[in-house]
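note to self — DONT lose this again. spent like an hour looking for the file last time. sequence + predicted structure for the chain T wanted, 381 res
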Amino acid sequence: MLSRLLALCQENLFGSVIPFWLRHSLDPVHGGYFTCLDRDGSLYDTRKYVWLNGRQLWMFSRLCNEVEARPEWVAAARSGAEFLRAHVFDPQGRCYFSLTREGLPSFYQRKPYGAGFVALGFLEYAKVSGDPWYRGRAEELFDVLPRWMEDPGLLGRPALAGGVPASNLADIYIMASLALESGHPPTLRQCLERIRLHIDPATGLLHETATLDPALRRSSPDARLICAGSIFEIFWILSRALRLAPDPGLQPQLLRALAAAWAFSWDTQHGGFYYFQDIGGRPTLQLESDMKLWWVHCEALYALLTAYLETRDDVWLERLERTQEWTWNRFPDARHGEWFGYLHRDGSLSHTLKGNNYKGCFHVPRMLLFTIQDLKKELAR
């Protein structure tokens, strides 16, 4: 099964996914990346979304650094890096959320995550270019991101009297990802300690938002929200973190969270994973909760592979095979390349798009690349 999966991922990454983004997303005039692409790659919105540009910069830079410095990949990375360097920052050093095709500010989202992905892209591109400016700027963002997370007022979102102090899983994800890329064990240890706030003691699931007052843990839809994709993604990220900052008591808890997410979020009627759920079985505020999204299934595939390679327990291999079969029969587009992003609950296509303001060149190719790298090591053993 692993040999077949390796061949499938290699063919899909290098024969379908990366060629799609090379053909359709690069702006040859102004630089940077378009992400609002229809099924055939045709453009339906010329705005450039900063966090997706940062992610795509990281992706092409990682390919250059760990696969091959192909001229077309180097040029694609340079296009994104130079566009972001010229246009992404406001006078206070914060990052815009979207830019016009030419690079003018279009929208400012008062969250820190765009800056996090710009930093990831800059860190990886610094290795491609040899330009120390990119690593220096990424380190500056790495230093300021925790302050933006702790005090949203710095981004124009002041704390309000009715707000409930909480920890966000996305904050842990961003900081752990950056700490892995930059090699910063103290931050990894902080992330590993903080994840304990999110563990539901009854089920083992990870709350998307963990209220800091235990009495309020299930007091609202936000506090009860479960996103399986986030659990899958944070599992493999923190599993990597544990190699640099060992915490023997945490790995069993992360494995329990992964198993709980697989069981809780798998749709027993139609297959695939729900997007959002309420841990108490109550309604969610998100109307798209029962949809099946590309990134959730990408993260599931890599998390399940990671769990199998770490434990050698065949139960993870069985879950991986089941997830892989459902996913590959629905998301990849054999005609035009890349993957569809959004399915209805029954697995039928909801949108024809290959990219928008949230889907870009990241989850699919990253999962494929990491799977290829891990399986090559495994099969070589």
